[in-house]
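can u do me a favor
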């Protein structure tokens, strides 16, 4: 009996219209375009502006575009998983809101939180339903409105993050799809990348607001060290386990956190930069959206049978790598 894989049969991305440039940030905090570019590789990022517009707005647009371009009937979708750390509300799930707005009336939905590794974890989770033979059409969304939890007076974090979403359609295949993965987490990382307020440990109060506890806190050096070590290690292990070489892998698809991290991981894994997807200069770090946005931006350059290695690292800590065999050629 042939093994069933979860194959990506479509991808779509969405970013808001508003562009926050480095030059604009120079007017907000003590920084410069040269400083930001040289240390992060970021030139601009997109922000979702407007009243009562949460992460679901980004996810809805990504899913609408995905359904349209793949010619998929919304009622055929059985499951939607949304990876996010910036849910519209604690409940209902952002995935529920996306499904309601896109006509997924027969799908059950849930959110998955694994910070910047969220899409990788959600893709792995969704693939199990396809591989088990219980589901035929599943959508995975990576979406975050990071501007909602960024302190724009903190120059160490406000330069990094942007808003965006990406979505993929998964369907069964006996040849292509999610072939293998290795995921990890380590709760000791909670001290280096986190948001203190808003949960049951520090519920919202006038004190948590006054202390700016509802914004991202990051200790850059230990995060950088853990990210390059973790991602390079799992990339090497997944490739070795599947008999892959740098020549047989078409693209390395890394989380877009910082260009220096991307370059270091590529170097440690001995990948030439021309085979590494990098779009951080346009979007910044969109957390759970970076990997699907890369796939969306590179879709026309991907070919059926291409071997891809996806890797990510996020707060918690969470990290992992996934081996994906691309399923289709994109029409010109």
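np, heres the sequence
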């Amino acid at each position: 009996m042939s093994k069933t894989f979860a194959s990506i049969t479509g991808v779509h991305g969405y970013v808001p219209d508003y562009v926050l440039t480095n030059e604009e940030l120079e007017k907000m905090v003590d920084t410069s375009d040269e400083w930001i570019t040289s240390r992060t590789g970021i030139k601009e990022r997109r922000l979702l502006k407007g009243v009562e517009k949460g992460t679901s707005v980004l996810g809805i647009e990504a899913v609408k575009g995905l359904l349209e371009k793949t010619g998929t009937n919304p009622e055929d979708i059985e499951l939607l998983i949304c990876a996010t750390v910036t849910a519209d509300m604690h409940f209902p799930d952002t995935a529920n809101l996306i499904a309601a707005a896109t006509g997924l009336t027969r799908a059950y939905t849930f959110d998955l939180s694994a910070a910047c590794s969220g899409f990788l974890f959600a893709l792995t989770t969704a693939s199990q339903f396809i591989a088990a033979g219980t589901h035929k059409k599943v959508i995975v969304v990576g979406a975050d409105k990071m501007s909602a939890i960024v302190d724009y007076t903190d120059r160490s974090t406000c330069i990094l993050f942007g808003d965006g979403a990406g979505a993929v359609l998964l369907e069964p295949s006996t040849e292509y799809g999610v072939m293998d993965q290795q995921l990890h987490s380590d709760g000791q990382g909670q001290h280096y990348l986190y948001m203190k307020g808003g949960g049951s440990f520090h519920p919202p109060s006038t004190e948590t607001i006054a202390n700016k506890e509802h914004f991202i806190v990051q200790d850059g050096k230990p995060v950088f060290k853990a990210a390059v070590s973790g991602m390079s290690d799992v990339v090497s292990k997944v490739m070795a386990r599947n008999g892959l070489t740098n020549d047989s892998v078409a693209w390395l698809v890394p989380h877009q956190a910082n260009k220096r991290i991307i370059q270091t991981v590529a170097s440690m894994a001995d990948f030439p930069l021309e085979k590494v997807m990098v779009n951080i200069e346009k979007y910044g770090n969109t957390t759970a959206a970076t990997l699907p946005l890369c796939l969306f931006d590179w879709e026309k350059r991907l070919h059926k049978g291409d071997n891809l290695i996806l890797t990510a690292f996020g707060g918690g800590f969470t990290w992992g790598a996934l081996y994906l065999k691309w399923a289709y050629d994109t029409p010109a």
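The first helix runs from residue 22 to 26. hope that helps!!
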